[in-house]
Design goal:
The protein is mainly beta. The chain has a domain of 195 residues. The protein contains four helices and 19 strands. It has a six-stranded mixed sheet. Strands 6-10-11-14 form a four-stranded mixed sheet, with no helix packed on it. The protein is globular, with a radius of gyration of 18 Å.
Length: 314
Amino acid sequence: MIRPTFLFATVCIAVLGSTALAQSPTLKTPRGTVAIFPADNPWNQDVSKLPVHASSPDYLNSMGLDTGLHADFGTVYNGAPNGIPYNIINPLTPRQTVTFEYADESDAGPYPIPLVPQIEGGPSAPVDSDRHILLIDVENKKLYEIYQAVRQPNGRWRAGSGAIFDLTSNKLRPAGWTSADAAGLPVFPGLARYDEIVERNELRHALRFTVRKTQRAYITPATHWASSSTDPKLPPMGLRIRLRANFDVSKYPTSVRVILTGLKTYGMLLADNGSDGYISGAPDPKWSDNDLSTLRNVKIRDFEAVQTGPLVTK
């Protein structure tokens, strides 16, 4: 994966449209409840009334109009929890220095990594896989994210890149910086979670998704591209697509109806290069993999790209 650039410094995110702002989604934990970014954060904004992007047909065509959505999360896959897990840390969690491959685009830390953290793909995941570690500090309202984290024989951690986010702020990373994700976006706010979708019957934020081919450009809130292609028909990082308002969700299982209804309001943000139409979530043994598999009947042609800002190419 080519790592993109990321902008999370002093720039505040502009309101995407005149639609009413959503409430902040929340995460309930044994250590308390924390809001996942402010209500007017792009992840949490209603984009149902924004205009269709002029390049929407080209962008969707490049993803494959008949490509079905794929829930890249669920119960178990290849012996490990299926999806991107997250860790709730506490004041006693040891703070550790991480050595980064992309140190010039990473936040130095230290990072509060448990002795046995939950890691994407499990502890035995291939060292060249994404191996995300997501860490949430409820008391201090901080989100720590690490990409391709590997513990060394001496117990220290090496990783591709890392980013630290203030959950009370809308500031972006510095332009051109990556994060733990190719587009320079935070990963956690784009995950589908069982506790909100099934237990609370709601989805109040955009979801993270991937495509195989992107162009050398991004749209904020992304801050980094992950491609050398200048083909304008390819989607840029940070592109927002939403499910068409007239798409019939009534025939889907309840949990999938909640997801699809949320995609009409909040859409999906293009965050990384990967398989076309893969949407991200957190693993949970209570997911119904059979229900989630019905997402494959929702095709890319059922979406439309929306205009949220200009392309950044320099």
